Amino acid sequence: MAGTDEDAVAAADDALYVLTAVLLTPAKFPSVLGDDYPEACAALGLAPLADGYGLVLGQDSVGARWTVVIDDVSLVAVAIASWDCGMEYELSPDERTVVAALPGWPLEVAVAAPGVPAPHDPAPEIADGPALCPPDTSVWGPAQRRLGADEIALQWALWRDQIDDAEFTPPPATSGADGADEAEKDAPKGHTGIRRVLAEARAYVDSPPPLGRVRSSFASGDARTLRADGPGWSLVARTDDIAFVLLDDEPGEVLPVGRGPELPGLLEALDKMAVRPS
User: Fold this and answer.
1) Domain for residue 227, yes or no?
2) Residues 150 and 120 in one domain
3) DSSP label at 141?
4) What is the C-alpha separation between 228 and 149, in angstroms, rounded?
5) Which of 127, 150, 181 is the last residue of a domain?
6) How confident is the model at residue 188 (pLDDT cuts 50, 70, 90)?
7) pLDDT at 247 > cutoff 50
8) Where are the alpha helices (DSSP H) in 19-141?
9) What does the radius of gyration of the chain's CA atoms come to, in whole angstroms?
10) How far is CA 149 from the centre of its chain?
């Protein structure tokens, strides 16, 4: 595992100026890093522990970027919750909770520590491996697609208001043995990509995918916000409403999926098997 030697840990722990922190757990992880929890862990060279990790991003006394991985998930969760509420919280992990000190940052950080040199990668002699860097989101691909899905989940009402439900008037019923005809009613114009996504999401119910491929989080009322990802696709939905699909092979497109006859049951089944925040 990169960055686990004593020199690297000591370098990162020496006057680390904490800038931000994120959770890396089965239910909540930076989706830009992967379609599921094990994939996100692999991007950092970490084993996918059941309880997950906290990632503390900061700079050392000479301005070098470090990502300190700790196993005290609750500490990071409390810090993030406090910051989200506009409260001050000094995040100071106990050295006994440090799993690894990784050079670089795996995510974009828009701030820098005052009074130290500008953020830069640690010197090779103490980094013990290549520095982490954020995935390239300048061009459309898996990372950008997942970020797009994150934004839709965060701004659901804004995206939902742009959709006219009249788009989803179902065509005359046709027979079909595999449910493809039902999916076509949910997707305007019978979009091939949407049919594929719904079929693959349906397969998750019978054959559970890697941990974190399907996640459920709070929404207003009794609804839940569902997030599912797969090879080349992301789906965001509310259990009481429609869904949106993003595809790697359709750059920048956000494809709505109406309730129709199939989607409600599929969302209910996915929600039952989804990973939820503790």
Assistant:
1) yes
2) no
3) S
4) 10
5) 127
6) low
7) yes
8) 37-43, 73-84, 124-127
9) 21
10) 9
Under DSSP, is residue 218 helix (H, G, I), strand (E, B) or coil? Answer: strand
Q: Which amino acid is at 218?
A: F
Are 111 and 150 part of one and the same domain? no
Residues in the chain, overall count:
278
Task: Summarize the confidence of residues 77-92 as an average pLDDT.
Answer: 92
In the chain, the number of structural domains is 2
Co-location of 147 and 263 in the same domain: yes
Q: Which run of H or E residues covers position 236?
A: strand 233-238
Domain that includes residue 237, residue range:
142-273
CA distance 82 to 79: 5
Task: Of 158, 151, 122, 107, give the one whose Cα is nearest residue 7.
Answer: 122
Mean pLDDT within 192-218 = 95
In this structure, is residue 133 part of a structural domain?
no
Structural domain ending residue among the three candidates 73, 92, 127: 127
According to the model, what pLDDT value does residue 93 have? Answer: 87
Crossing angle of helices 192-206 and 263-273, in 10° steps, is: 40
Identify whether residues 115 and 189 lie together within a single domain: no
CA–CA dist 148, 235 (Å, integer): 10
pLDDT for res 212: 97
Task: Give pLDDT, residue 4.
Answer: 44
Token couple for 110: 């828009």
Distance CA 7, CA 18 (A): 19
Residues 65, 151: one domain? Answer: no
Predicted confidence at residue 1, as pLDDT, reads 32
Give yes or no: residues 121 and 168 share one domain. Answer: no
